[in-house]
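User: Assemble these into one structure.

Assistant: Restating your components, then the assembled model:
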Amino acid sequence: MSRKLWVWAVGMLVIAGMLASAAGASTRVENSRKLTKVTLQLKWVTQAQFAGYYAAKAKGYYEKAGLDVTIKPGGPNIVPEQVVAGGQAQFGIDWLSSLMLSRAKNVPLVSISQVFNKSGLTLLTWKDTGINTVAKMKNKKVGNWLFGNEFEVFAALAKFGMDPVHNRGVTIFQQPFDMNAFLKRQIDAASAMTYNELAQVLETKNAKTGKLYTMNALNVIKMQSVGTSMLEDNIFTTTDYLKSATNRDTAKKFVAASLQGWIYCRDHQSDCVKTVLANGPALPKGHQTWQMNEINALIWPAPKGVGVMDPAAYKRSAKIVATYGKLKKVPGHEAYRTDIEAAALKSLKAAGVDVYGRKWHKLNIHVTAGGQ
Amino acid sequence: MSAQPVAVQPIPRGALSRRVGGRALDWVPALVVLVLVLVIWEESIAIFDIKRFLAPQPSAIAANFWDNRGELLHGGWFTFQEAFGGWLIGCGLGLLTALVLARWRRLGRALMPYSIAASAIPIIAFAPITNAWFGPFGKTSKMAIAAVLCFFPVFVNTVRGLTSVRPSSIELMRSYAAGEIDIFRRVRFPTALPFIFTALKIATVLSMIGAIVGEYFGGAPEALGVLINSRNATFDFEEAWAGIGVACAFGIAFYLAVAALERLALRGAPSTEE
């Protein structure tokens, strides 16, 4: 009899423990009733690529605008469009190409601010291979992460007569999220973001010399220079969300505060690196310092004002996505709205903030081993 | 020579088809349930206006499968080869290890707790490690995961089977001055066969799961798991579901093949299946 009691008691304890942890996980501490709660879903893990949003939170720009923002980092297998469309976040960050793909499949999302106005995607080759242009990549092995990240590279290869979709004239290699295949020379050209994978290569020691690899050892072929670049990080939300005037106002406040965060990161680069580090990124200080510098290079100078969509760049992106994303028609300008970004920019200008960043220039970053 | 009555049903004798498949009529209730589920699924989405990216309609999935059947079936076959290779290796090693440990009991008693503890490790967490060891794009890294997943059920069940012989049978064999090898061949191994086949059937589905989930961490572009993951990322949900369907089909076919093998191997022995 007592043994049955023991089993029952232990069973109840286990169930109680599970329920308590589940309840604890879903409890949110209520700070102030006056702040509107919104959630932002990032495209990737915590890193300087999203410094503007972390800065806006740390410097209190969101709070001053009446927003209580929860920032959710992304990662492999997290698709920001799905998170936002599923209602677990009000705003998301992703590449414009993903947004266009989701819209083509009837997921009702819209871009409200194009934060990055240049593409950070490049193809890396070793200088000693002599492959210093895309044309020379004929019959070579070219790496990309695929899953929707390949369009700029495919368009570049196709521009020079190769057929990357059917592996004719070039062999496409699916890159994992590390640069080992490139470092081991298993591929001839690797896809690399200026702000991430390029730094990972530079932070690695050359086993033969014992010293870090330098830019002198690499050819960095920018998609922006080849002319097949597409627009990348933008802030998006659902069309349903923007139907109410209150939400449109929230969106405007969110965009304005976020852009203000990016302006702060332009003018206070090392302070923003500290803010990102305080949020627990996977890669360390040296890497984040490099990344902050390169990310600023994708935003500044902003000729039309930060966060404003450039229609010509949009058209080019749309055409490339339509071809390589196998869309039935080229996305028209319904994929983005200008009203929110215009209102946000107006409020920033009224506050006397520099929204163009014409004087900003890239710093020379000292690379450390392992990005320490 | 059983001392107590055991509820068994003899394997039906006769034509091969009857032996391996049972009667066709036995399958009708299951088919009815399948059709009902599909109809409810199809209609619920239309009636409740469920968003496409949560669950597409079965008709849309089927249409997409037909459009992409070449790519999907090629991917399924590729992944199945990984699963099958892993199954062969894992089950083979499991059997061998069990034979050794059942023969030398002390060694068995020493190692069994560790093997049970090791089987509790989420094997799929090793996927990035096997990718680093064997390279993410070949079949070997996924075969390794499938093999480890198959090893433990086969090992544990085989040991149980080999050691759960009735003492009276062993005594009888000894009274005939039978050596260890004879006892093994005539008593232990036949007793263990039902246990072994149960484990082999479990291992078939585990191997397929191991191969597909392993591919989520990196695999060849034509592999089914990579395809499912990729289509999900580019919002092609119908194709992702179609891929899942193909994976299920291969897994079920593999299971049924081993089940058929079991029926053939165990003919003449009393079955403990219903």
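The two ends of chain A are 62 Å apart (CA to CA).
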